[in-house]
């Protein structure tokens, strides 16, 4: 098993190479540390939230919450983090300057070995072309559409228009491409990041996801 105290220092060089230049806001949290603190954020995350990395590393992501943030959704996110499980949602978050945004969030586990998992988050500030009358209802409609799409079920025309549906689908594909890019980097770097054992088992643990096995050029086109 990886040394818990050393995991951040082991991973940070690889994360910087893989994630620093991504246009998608990326955050990595460690659920094995108290309060699931962030251990890495990229430049796009800083640009989205207006927080510098040194201001948020070591903190739980709840600093993005505010008056209109739905506590039911944050509880669901916290539960997913406790289970080291993936989740996706739309939630009202707040930048450092107090301005709010509809945060399309997706979380996936990064399994380092059989007993060690980090959580990777992808964010996107979604600007809907159709609103639900209030900020809270608009966010709830985006959230429901995102969840229905994740489950491959039909989105009601009453919930969100076709243009926004297409945009949500495209963002979801870019999230999957980002997750796969990081997972593939972990696989390539497994000689130093993973416990000794069967290479096949480790690849199976890391390789799960919608883009597993896809051509790398296809992934990079989605992220470009």
From TrEMBL:
Keywords from the named record: Chromophore, Flavoprotein, FMN
Domain of life: Bacteria
InterPro entries: PAS, PAS-like_dom_sf
Domain PAS as annotated: residue spans: 34-120
Name of the protein described by the UniProt record: PAS domain-containing protein
Organism name: Roseobacter sinensis
